[in-house]
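pinning this so it doesn't scroll away 📌
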Amino acid sequence: MFERLIRSRLEQARHSVLLLGPRQVGKSTLLTSLAPDLAINLAEPATHRRFLARPEQLSEILLGAGDGVRTILIDEVQKVPALLDAIQVLHDGAPKRFRFLLSGSSARKLKRGQANLLPGRIVVHALHPLVEREIGDAFRLDRALAHGTLPATWSDDEDLDRAELLRSYADIYLREEVQAEALVRDLGGYARLLDFVSAASGTIVNVNALCRAAEIQHETARRYLEILEDTLVLFRVSAWSGSDRASLVAHPKIYLFDIGVRNALLRRPLDRPLEDERGLLLEHFIGQELHRRTGTLWPEARLFHYRTKHGAEVDFVLEVGRELWGIEVKATRTVVPAMLSGLSSLADRTKRLRRQIVVALTEHRAKVGGVEVIPLREFLAELPP
């Protein structure tokens, strides 16, 4: 089992928790490790049917339980959103009696079911695939760029088994299960959009261009992208606006949640990263590492990208409080001044830029002008927590 960075925070907090994340990122494993007194798994068909028919059973079971039952795990709570009403009644009736550990893989199903998300009573956290620090000494960059960092792909030592898992995830979950949940009506349009989103992952995306490529209407494309976000399969990195918005590109970058799933969807070889994609994949990897830390692990940080209409760009702009970090990612062992024009453009635009960083495949730290050149794993070691 991997030691997840968020675990100590969940252990120390006394409040109830809703842990959201895509399938197979380890939500159940993590919450089970907190030693709940009672576990209810709504992914089990019989359990799902029972609570779907009578969600009030939860109150009956818990009110009849002994004093030793205090922490309750409910897996896949989005399958029976009405249970959240029962949890509210229990919480309000005896605020210190129970602590709930809830997991879910679809914020959309909770929203569509008009679920009571218990504001003020429950804290929502996100769980992602592994970050480099959680993998530890076993981490290998080429493996991460090919297979991604889903826990199961790092628990299995066989390349063929990891590849089969990723293809299964791509084909069965993303293409079939999302459709089966009645989230998608135009299956052909959704499949085409998913292919184009996979190919565009890590790049600036104009929804109108996606519409034309997938041959679907703008509103349909917008809704499908929203589905992918709400099922936590996709995330966006917004454009940094600055003060002179007219001269900046406003479109976001989009990223699939895991590089290995992206590679499986695109039918890339899963034993190695393609050399002509190494730069894109390395940027993708750093983007995921930064995104996975914003929120619970680094609440004061927000992630953006920067690009002007004249073509100057910086891969990531990290806003930490009032300070900005400009971060470029280069799949190179040598960084030269010609690579730094985007950072110079950003520095000219704002006085809040405190760090200009190039993350590269170098062996040692260096300074090029006022820019910090940092080896990839040293950079990751600097990130909280």
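📌 and the second one:
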Amino acid sequence: METWLVTGGAGFIGSNFIRHILAQNMVKIVNLDKLTYAGNLLSLSDITHNPDYTFVRGAIEDLPLVQDLLCRCRPATIVNFAAESHVDRSIDGPGQFIQTNIVGTFQLLEAARAYWLQAPPGTKAAFRFIHISTDEVYGSLGSSGRFSERSAYAPNSPYSASKAAADHLVRAYHHTYGLPVLTTNCSNNYGPFQFPEKLIPLMTLSAVAGKELPVYGDGGNARDWLYVLDHCRAIQAVLVKGTPGQVYNIGGGNEKTNLEIVHAVCDLLDRLQPRKDGHSYRRQITFVQDRPGHDRRYAVDAGKIRRELGWNPKETFDLGLRKTVEWYLGNPNWCRETLRGSYYGERLGLGTTA
């Protein structure tokens, strides 16, 4: 079997992707992750003893480490999930986002280019480097329209700016050096193993803990929601059938405002784990100061990947959300250990810290 190097594989999307691929018994996976607060080996505890899986602790910006890993493992594919990804944290401290998302991607591209150039002809022809990015690089939409692969970049947060820079580097390495790269820009993911500072797990865990449910501004900021396993299937489709040098937008076709999401979580919890006083969890909703520079609306046109690669999302939003909320309710140990010493549900992203 060939080997794939997955970077950032202990994070939310990366861990789901690794589990999805290993279940098919078609490739070996080497997972390179530096285990920041959002990277958690508990998310992969069920595959620790799989002979086709290897974990290496380290950062993509560590060029000698990556070079050595490529030399030893000889991967046919590099899947780059490694990134700092939370907008609020980028507002409070952008430096690490620049280091990981820009410098790290550059170092990974440098190592990949050197490895690819010296590869045997057959290996060189089949090699792929796929970069996992976000729809946030396109900025904020008005009340209508969707982002396509032709949309201009207009990032509005340090996070999205750092991802936009990484996207441009990946594109440049294809056009300048011929490196066979692919880029995907996805909408908001949700599902199991997501770090609980993100909207759906935060609202779920805060609600059952009896805490307030903070909604930014008027709650009208809209996002397109994509179930994580549908995203994993899309990435695999791009790897198998995508054209090097191309960009593919991935969206779930589920545009919801933040307030609609919070209401849906509350309504689910009312049925799955009702409050002892009989009232709805909606009583815990409170509106708080908006995030600085909060993009009003994202929506993704996923027509290209549907037409050219035959991918379509399988999960409905209602069922996907139910699966997600049930997973968090059923995995209190994962939630407790993941949060230990790293995050306590506090408000981030007001830009008041250096």
